[in-house]
Amino acid sequence: MHARADAADTAPTWPDDIFATLQRFDVRQVPYVPDAGHSKLIQRVLGSSTMRGIPLTTEEEGVALLAGAWAGGQRGVLLMQSSGVGNCINMLSLIPILRFPFLTLVTMRGEWGEFNPWQVPMGSTTQGVLELSGVKVLRASNAAEVLAVLEAAAAQAYNALTPTAVLLSQRLIGAKVFTK
Amino acid sequence: MSKANLLDRRQVVSALLADRNDVVAIGGLGASTNDICAAGDHARNFYLWGGMGGAAMIGLGLALAQPKLPVLVITGDGEMLMGMGSLATIGLQKPSNLSIVVLDNEAYGETGGQTSHTSAAADLVGVARSCGIRDSRAVTTMAEVEAFAKAVHDLSGGPRFANVKIDSANLERILPSRDGTYIVNRIRSDLGFQPI
């Protein structure tokens, strides 16, 4: 059984802030690889009449999908976990080449009380991998700053065509623990 | 290398795009992009020179954004094998205006003709069908290619998938633009979108 420790409360409202921001920026396609940290946002997306949630088999699919969405006139956002960033590296090359707006929201593992050593290598390099790939990185570490960080990220991604990742820190989400 | 009775890739792609009207055509990294250009440069051609494995997903994103437009992905067996999971993603979304054609020469033509998995083991038609793409066809004749080209314009019948066995001849390269921003903005402009 999975449980979460350290989270500020058991029913966080910051995913609602993210959803509201994405709606305001007219985001239509939301590819994702399922992830506990994104579960509430994914629920909101799947219940939305204007956004389409698109489950992927691997995160790199989402990068290519967003390129096609842009060619067809729609904005999107890719939801993934830090380990998924590693699956995207070659496909991220499409972003500067095609110059399409790219925003990804990454829930972090491998930091802030991580219990699973297997999450640490990718979690430790997530920011560096993104930055080496030409993606600007912003971070939200507490619920109060999520709205402002999302607003800034969406503005620079969609208005300034500046590829942007928001790292939603494990401190924000709450470290995962396994209980029997 | 060429086996008998296999189709010519340029004839196949020419037939697919002969009466294209408003079709948006996406090529995969490799010879399929050259084939699309050889059939005639067009504002709605999306040429891939990189991002191997991404062609079908670019098609899905475009098809979902423009449900009233026929979207046709034309790629190779190596490129499709790399993005095989995208067939499962497409099977789940079921975009009725998306068609995918794999030009299957059972080889990696770009890198010297090394045999691909489709030469001995992988059946991409079976994969596509198992992923929920009900209209999945194995194509071996030009008559079947022409029938598929007509089906591409039926916006209610997709997604559909065709695996076309082609010969492995290395043809003269017809090179389209390599400027990705130009390619995408040309499509967007033709669809009526303004630059930012």
Any key phrases for this structure?
heterodimer, A: 180 residues, alpha/beta, 4-stranded parallel β-sheet, 3-stranded parallel β-sheet, 9 strands, 21% strand, B: alpha/beta, 6-stranded parallel β-sheet, 8 helices, 36% helix
Spell out the blueprint of helices and strands:
The complex is a heterodimer of chains A (180) and B (196).
Chain A: E1 2-4, H1 14-24, E2 27-32, H2 39-46, E3 52-55, H3 59-71, E4 75-76, E5 78-81, H4 82-85, H5 94-98, E6 103-107, H6 120-132, E7 136-140, H7 143-159, E8 164-168, H8 170-173, E9 176-178
Parallel strand pairs in A: 2-3, 2-4, 5-6, 6-8, 7-8
Antiparallel strand pairs in A: 1-9
Chain B: H1 9-17, E1 24-27, H2 31-38, E2 45-46, H3 55-65, E3 71-76, H4 77-82, H5 85-93, E4 98-104, E5 107-108, E6 114-115, H6 124-130, E7 135-139, H7 142-151, E8 160-165, H8 180-190
Parallel strand pairs in B: 1-2, 1-3, 3-4, 4-8, 7-8
Antiparallel strand pairs in B: 5-6
Question: Would you write up a description of this structure?
Answer:
By secondary structure, chain A is an alpha/beta fold. Helices cover 42% and strands 21% of the residues of chain A. Chain A starts with a strand and ends with a strand. In chain B, 36% of the residues lie in helices and 17% in strands. Chain B has 8 helices and 8 strands. A 6-stranded parallel beta sheet of chain B has the order 2-1-3-4-8-7, with helices on both faces. A two-stranded antiparallel ribbon of chain B has the order 5-6. In chain B, helix 1 packs across helix 2 (31-38) and helix 1 (9-17) runs parallel beside helix 7. The chains are: A alpha/beta (180), B alpha/beta (196). Chains A and B meet through strand 3, helix 3 and helix 5 of A and helix 3, helix 5 and helix 8 of B.
